[in-house]
Amino acid sequence: MSNEIGGGTSEDSSLEKLRTLQITPIDVEEDNESQINGDGGGDGDGDGDGDGDIFDDEDEDEDEEQVPVTLGFVEKPKNRWSLLRQLFPSKAGGVPAWLDPINLPSGRSCHCEICGEPLQFLLQVYAPLSEKETTFHRTLFVFMCLSMTCLLQDQHEQWKRQPEKASRSVKVFRSQLACLNPFYSSEPPKHDGTDKPSGIGAALCNWCGTWKGDKVCSSCRRVRYCSEKHQAMHWRSGHKIECRQLNSYPQSSNTSPTNSSVETQKVASNTIWPEYEIINEDECEFDTEMSEDSKYSNSLVSGSRMDESVKSLLDNFEGDSDKKSWASFQERIARAPEQVLRYCRYESAKPLWPMSSGQPSKTDIPKCNYCGGPRGFEFQILPQLLYYFGVKNDVDSLDWATIVVYTCEASCEENNGPYREEFCWVQLASQSVAVP
Ligand SMILES: [Zn+2]
Ligand SMILES: [Zn+2]
Ligand SMILES: [Zn+2]
Ligand SMILES: [Zn+2]
Q: Is pTM, for the whole model, over 0.85?
């Protein structure tokens, strides 16, 4: 009973390592950093800000290569229960495993602000922070509109600065909980299929399985929707018939849609992306001196081959900064070509930009909507994910070069609901050069 994972200690620890995208502290030369963000440490006679900035700029360039990056890869979930919310998963596709299962985002937050469609779940990253009690559990959720037309419009919107209101088609939410909370046991999950959440979650939309289902089909009163759009889609795709059948049976409490104690919810929509578990590996594991028996050794072979073609590209296109940037982006990615995510919450961390043009400056990243503090880079999503989602490569298909997520550096507390909207910056692939 107490022996949670079947395979002995080594498997335990490797599983443990894969389980979260939390970066465990690494004892590299972090002396600088502790001086900069002195809020944790002792002598708080802080006239700090100005000094910190200068310090920061000085060693930014030197440190760039040394900041450790955690890579995310997708895998089919090992078990039916692997991605349930009580296991605090990082996952892509399918439906979100909401951290706070009750107080979900609602209203304008769940919709594309360009076309008005409910947003589709892209991925979530479990990234707890050990420095605060309130971030014992912490998950970031990314949603986007399926329309490439909206994403093209979003390109203009993301440049808008306060007080102008940007209408976004990609959104990020941050949710966090203390160890003691109403939804989960304070004991770590056993990962053996027996873990249960402390209560049931809000009833969800029967079509998308993503957003709160606070509208009910007026005819059968058994199925719930987040929006009229999803009700209409369900109706057209078969509920029209199902609804009549449901109506001809007396309603019993067992079939009530609010009975969501079985949390593996059936989703009617056929446009939901396939579901994957996100597992993580340190990027340094993919350096050339990595061991033969490593799982990704095959990719490395093709990776180094790519290096050479990229180098010749660089020689040919030295002049064009975007082409050059694209080439070095590709070169870095080629170390582990299947990566879908790059995670790095260090202060000096910077995203890996595919293009040199169209990058935000510091002032283009809005301050936290809740505490007014600065936002910092936390992770970026790569277009490889679209391949795993089976998104076609047509002209009007959804496509991006990278989605960069910025979050409140203080990971501030809940004041305005348990899901706080963060900021993302999208670079599109269509702006990039076609690599021959
Ligand atoms: Zn849209
Ligand atoms: Zn819905
Ligand atoms: Zn109905
Ligand atoms: Zn904040």
A: no
